[in-house]
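name: query_chain
kind: protein
chains: 1
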Amino acid sequence: MLKPESAISLSRAPIGFKEFEGDRQFATTLARGLALLRCFTPDQPVLGNKDLVMRLGLPAATVSRLTYTLMCMGYLASTEHYGKYQLGAAVLSLALPLSSQFSALRREARPLMLALSEATGGTVSIGIRDRLNVVYIEAVRSWNKRIYPIEVGTSHSLAGTAIGRATLMSCRLSEREALLKQLQVKAPDEWEKYGLKLLENIQNHARLGCCVSVGEVYPDVQAVAVSLGRIQRGEAAAVNCSFQGRHLNAQWLIDDIAPQLQALVRQLT
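structure:
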C-alpha cells in the first residue's frame, strides 16, 4: 500500500505534463526540476520557495529539495534576500551549445534584418517553436524606445503572435494539426483568446504568404511574419517584423511590410 507522501507525488505531475502521469519512462523528478527553472522570467528573476510552490503546485518539501539540488549544481544561485533564488551561471552555459548551432544563420541574417529594421522602424526577429510557445534566436531593432521585451531567448505565445503563427506554417501538416489540438487541450485560455484569429491566419496563409497579429497580445503592438521553413536541426522557424505605438493597420502590414520580409527570406533560403 502506498504511503500518503508517495500517493501525493504520483498525483502531482508537473503542470503541463499530465499526459505523462503513469509513464514509467518519464523522469518526473527531472521534469519537475526543469519546470522549476522555467518559472524564472525577465519580469520575475527572483523567486522563493513559496512562490515556486504556488507556480508548480508541488509540496513545499519537494520544492525545497529541488531548489537545494539546483543550487548545488549551479543552476540556481542565492540572492541578497534570504530564501530567494535566481538563475545560476550554469543555465547560461547550458544554452551556449544550442545557440552556437544557429550562429551561421544569425550571422547571415543579421545585416539583412538590420537593414529592414532601419527601413521600416520595426523590430525584426527570428523565432523557433518551444513546445506551445515561440522563442527568439535573433532580434534586431533600430531604436530602443520599447516597453515590451524582444531579446534573444524571449518567449511569446505560439497562438497569439504573428511569428508564432508563421512558425506553425513551417511545420508539417500533421505536426501543425497535432499542435492545434494541444493548444486547445493544454492551453485553453490561449485558445479562447487567439484561436479564431489563428485559424483565420492559417486559412489565409496560402493567399497572403504571411501571418499577422494586430493588437492581440499587446494593444499597441502589431506584427507580420513569414515562414522560414526548416532551419538547422530541422527546427520550424519564422521571421517577424513588429511595431509598437503606431496606428494599427493590418492591410499596411500585408501590403507593405510582408513583401520586404518575403524578400529577406528568399535571400536566406
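note: The beta strands are 47-48, 76-78, 84-87, 123-130, 133-141, 155-157, 211-214, 221-230, 236-244.
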